[in-house]
Structures are given as structure tokens and as C-alpha cells.
Design brief:
6-stranded mixed β-sheet; Rossmann fold; single chain; Beta-Lactamase; 434 residues; 13 strands; alpha/beta; binds guanosine-5'-triphosphate; 5-stranded antiparallel β-sheet
Amino acid sequence: MHTLFGENILSPAADQVPLPDPFELAFNLYPSASSDTPSKSSPPQNDWLTQLQKQAPTDGATSFSHGTQQGPPPRRKGNPRLLFMGLRRCGKSSVQKVVFQKLPPADTLYLEATNKIEKASMQSFMNFESAEIPTQLPVLSPEYEHATVFTNIGAVIWIIDSQDEYLTSISELLRVAVFLAENYPRANLEVFIHKTDGLSEEYKYDTFREVRQRVQDELSDFGYGDRAVSYYQTSIFDHSIFEAMSKVIMKLLPQLPAMETLLTKLCSTCRIQKAYLFDTVSKIYIATDTSPTFLKDYEVCSDYVDVIVDIKQLYGWLDAPKDAPKDGSQPQNEDPELESEGTQPKIEGVQPKSEASPSKSGSSQPKSAPDTNMLGESMVTFDKGGDNYMYAREISNSLSLICLMGQGSGPDKRKLIEYNVDILHDALLQVFKV
Ligand SMILES: Nc1nc2c(ncn2[C@@H]2O[C@H](COP(=O)(O)OP(=O)(O)OP(=O)(O)O)[C@@H](O)[C@H]2O)c(=O)[nH]1
């Protein structure tokens, strides 16, 4: 049988400190202050960080020049925190509540203005933590104790209302960008060009281009032209907000390169068109293969995750109360194995195989998988010939592999696919240091 993975595919090396929390970053992955050249693990765009490391004075919240310190390197502890910022009524609360608290988008019409820092969290494969900063809070002013807000921040998400006049928002965004570059260079800056629903394609494109151009030009003038800022077009009324959040969160996972390599190998060996590792509850994907991503692929896979969750609601969850609600705060989706340092992850064999495969439309041909193991597995086709189909395999209670199968991966390849997915599953266990 054709096997997928070589022995040495997984990184980092075995003698590294285990990372039970997927978000804990060991800062020794980065070049030390004493090194003159960037290490292999540092992409060229991060060279400026190396330079800053050499210059930066050590102060508790912002320092990362640990290279000359004794003892173990400092690590980013706990869950990564996302900060939502932007002008009034740009949609900060809406994004936070729709993504993390599963509020129906239409209900955001009735949200009240935010006057204090509002936090949200969601327990799933990862524990998401986010906070919304009210516009009127002067968090950037020197008098403000900004360490309380920005320490251990993973990413700042700046939201621009594209249906409103956005020049003021851009100038505020630039203040934040410069502040982060000077004080918290490890925090990612992500810009959501938001409320794109109802805009013409041409207007959307022009707005996107203009915002990006202005920000990059101004940042260059401030001397931070090499600071990476990412831009996304988002709306809470479609899947774009989930796709954007996936990309924001993926960047914070130290295991991402290993997961991407595994999924890319799986795709090329089994002729899979696109493979996603989904956090089942939030519908945020934490990794995908390296082929281009299209919103349509994400949409169809995300809808399939919904169907799977609905079926689990009907037939019950093996490790959790059957009547648990679907939102993010319920216990059935907790993955205690990845939450505490002392607990070993156990992400194999937690779910029985789905008895019923979902049917999406009249023309779909659901098939149920044979009973060869104890993992949740299902397939659904969306053409009469059965050549195009989706394949789902649960990796854990709250992590699912969803694949869009391409030409040449028909039913005769079923055994090969199952075999390789089994290997992927084992490899993922190693990535998360079982
Ligand atoms: N069309 C559209 N409207 C949106 C979107 N996101 C949010 N809104 C609307 O924008 C309005 C303001 O949303 P909020 O989430 O309250 O904005 P905010 O930034 O938290 O507001 P403050 O707390 O007052 O600063 C609400 O009426 C939302 O329904 C979107 O993607 N598209």
C-alpha cells in the first residue's frame, strides 16, 4: 500500500518542550538577540523583528530579547487573545458575537453601544478569547495602563465600516499600527474591511485597494513599511467573516506548518481537491492544504460541518450530555486534553462512526461508511455519478477533517483514502504531542 508520510516529516524536533496548549509559543523558535543572522525558522519578512530584538530594552510586557537571559525562554502563556478595535458602529460587537457566541446576524441590529471592554470566550478544540475595545477608551495614550490590554495579545483586528466614510478610520488604524510596531511587535495586525454585503463587486474591490494602498503608503512614511498587515473583506451575513477569522487564528498556531504539510501530502496522494481541519463548534478552520483557498470551498465544507453537528444533536454525543445546546459554551465540545499542561491529549477513537450520512438535496446520495473503526466518518455526494463528494472524519470531539474529493478519488480508492487518513490522524496526534 502506498504510504503518505515519511518518518521525519514532523517538526519541531523531538527534544523540544511539549506544547499542550496549541497557542503557547516557545519564543526560542525565533533568533536570539545574540545571533547575527536570522534562523531558518524566521521568514525574511520577520527580519525586522530580529533587528528590534537586538535594540529593544527589556521591559516586562514588551520584551522578547531573551537570548541573553538565563533559564528557559519566556513563552506566551494561555490562550491567544484577539482584540477588536475600530470606530463607533463599525461592527465590533457584531463580529465578536456572531463568531464566538453564535448570535444570529440579524439580531445584531439590536445591539447596544459598548462602553467598557467586553470580553467573550468560547471553549472548543481551542479556547478562543476575545475582547472589544470601546472607541472612546484612550488605550493608546501614554497615561493609560496599556499593558493590561495588550499583553499576550495574539492579534489586533481593526474593523473598517466600508459602507461609511472610512478616512478617519484609516488614520486611527495607522495610530494603532505604529503603536503596535513600537510596543508590541509580535501582535499581528489584521484589518477587516467590513459590511461588504450589499456593495457592488467593483466598489468592494476599489475600497479594498484604496484602504490597503493608503495604509501601506502611510506606514512606509512612518518607517514601518515592512510591518505585515493583512486585509480581509468581511460581512457577518455570509461565510466571509468565518473565513477571515480562520486565517487570523491559523497564524497564531505554532503547529500550522506541520498541519499544512500533512494535509498537502494527503491531498496529493489521495487526489483530494481541498482539505480543511475544522474546529467543529466554531466552524473556524485551523489548517488547510497549501492549494489556493476559495470562499465557495469553505462554504460547502462549513455547511457540511453544520449537518454533522445537527446529526450529532439528534443522535447524541458520546462523551457529553445529549441535550447540550449548540453554542460555543457547552461542555460537549470541550477538549480538556489540550487545556492543561498536566493532561495528555487523547484525540483518537472518541466518536462512534456516524450511522446516518447526511443528505443535502434531493439529488444527493448519502452513503454510510463501513464499521472498521470507532471514528466518526461520513460522506455525501452532490452529483448523480457520485464522483464529486465530500468526506468527513472526526479527529476528536471538536476537530474534524473535511475533504472535497476531486476527480480520480472515486469509490475504488476508498481503502487508500481511509488508510492515509488513519496515518494523518496518528500524525496529528504527534503534532499535538500526545
Ligand atoms: N450590513 C451590515 N451591517 C452590519 C455588519 N456587521 C454589523 N452590522 C451592523 O452595524 C451596526 C453596528 O454594529 P455593532 O456591532 O453594534 O457595532 P460596534 O462597533 O460594536 O458599535 P459600538 O459598540 O457602538 O462602537 C449594527 O446595526 C449591525 O447590525 C455587516 O457585516 N453588514
